[in-house]
Amino acid sequence: MNLGPPAANPRSERPHQDGHASGTKSGALVRIAIEWMVDTGADITTVRNATGAKFDLTATGASASPTTGGGGILVYTGFAAEFTAEDRTSGTAYPMTSMQPVGVKSGNTGSEILGMDALSSNVVDVEWCPAARQGTLWIARPPFARASTGSGAFTRSDAAADTSSPPGTAPSGITDHGTWVDIGGVRLEKWLWDD
Fold it and tell me: Is 118 helix (H, G, I), strand (E, B) or coil?
């Protein structure tokens, strides 16, 4: 289990997890502790204004509206949401990082939200029992993963030999590379495509 109630309210039925936010500020690396509320109704990860101010962020031009009302949310890049998910077979915990755009609230009320974009980009499932106030973020077993051992990096030549489904080849004119790790006998690949 890696989900529970918030530290300030152990009677809460909403899932929380201690994690981090990372990025840069004035050229220096910044990493701060965050208590994430895992919100299955949130499309994007969202933080308080004071949290967003600790990083140099780039506006995307997009905005969002909170479901509970209040001020608007502006969307930025340049922020990494860090959390933990477990492998269902071994129970081993693995660090996860989402580089998806993040919403920054206009104020400093409410929770720091780990949205479904962060979970889906890492192929993670949510299991939560509100009555027991406990649950787990699980690493899902994607259909494109393949059995392997160890960990490492791969390049286009490695990917071209991949016979998994879908075939591990990038669109024409794009160099594909990335990293992989064996989790419970399943190879999970994180792809990076460069023009």
Answer: helix
181, 168, 66: which is closest to 122 by C-alpha? 181
pTM: 0.71
Cα angle for residues 19, 23, 28 (degrees, 5° grid): 125
Q: Phi/psi of residue 117, each to 5°?
A: -60, -40
Residue of 135, 136, 152 lying closest to 188 (CA atoms): 152
pLDDT digits (tens, 9 = 90+) for 64-107: 876 655 568 999 999 899 999 998 888 889 999 999 999 999 99
Return the CATH number at 78: 2.40.70.10
Give the structural domain span for 190: 151-194
Cα 174 to Cα 110, 143, 154, 159, 167, distances in angstroms: 42, 23, 14, 12, 15
Per-residue DSSP letters for 40-72?
TT-SSEEE-HHHHTTS--EEEEEEE--TT-SS-
Total domains present in the chain: 2
Give the residue among 123, 132, 129, 121 at the shortest CA–CA distance from 98: 121
According to DSSP, the residues that pair with 87 across neighbouring strands are 139
Shared domain check, 92 and 35: yes
